[in-house]
Amino acid sequence: MLAKRIIPCLDVKDGMTVKGVNFVNFRDAGDAVELGARYSREGADELVYLDITASHEGRKTFTQLVKNVAARLSIPFTVGGGINEMRDVDRLLSAGADKVSVNSAALRNPALIEEIAANFGSQVCVVAIDANYEDGRWMCYLNGGRIPSGRDLFRWAAEAQERGAGEILFTSMTHDGVKDGYALEALSELSGLRIPVIASGGAGRKEHFRDAFLHGKADAALAASVFHFGEIGIGELKAFLAGEGINVRQQQVI
Known about the structure:
Strand order of the largest sheet: 1-4-5-6-7-10-11-12
Number of helices: 11
Low-confidence stretches: 20-27, 55-59
Number of domains: 1
CATH superfamily: Aldolase class I
Oligomer: single chain
CATH architecture: Alpha-Beta Barrel
CATH topology: TIM Barrel
Radius of gyration: 16 Å
Order of helices and strands: EEEHEHHEHEHHEEEHEHEHEHH
């Protein structure tokens, strides 16, 4: 069985890491490069950097920041936000990113997934999905949770897989920042996909990560504030998960 991955997520605005609740009310969490370097040392398996206002503001993702991050990290990292065309993907990979995350642009132009997979390989293409539970359905949103797309989470995830996505990063807007646990039922349904699913939105305790893996059947668990504000250490989390019988990579802290 493949080891389950622990992935800190750094939402970046104006070069600084921020964290909100339900996609609003953001507060400063520290320097994006320094935080990433710290997580790399502490044993994170991967990192995700999201330029959270790029799509909404219509600008390109932070190339220089990606270069600075790549110079400091010893683990893979994914970059997302404002990626609309192949030139964006090439620019970010050339700057040092290992993968790109597409969300709004893929919903508007699903063929972008196929283009990325064909030109760079499926392993490079992470399709991020921000979905909110409303009226008994999980519905996808654009532009950092600001605009409803009318697309159903499960249908869109299946389509993204068929178009060549290498992974699905599912963030529950309903659970984001609330720290009551991940959207386990939705994760469990997504686990029927052939590609890995990353759980995001809702981590508040170590047990929530365990539940995402055991009950949600996620391949990786992503979190932000519990790491940024020192509520859970990556080393202690991995030790806890190993004690619960979950296969995690035990990396030596430098």
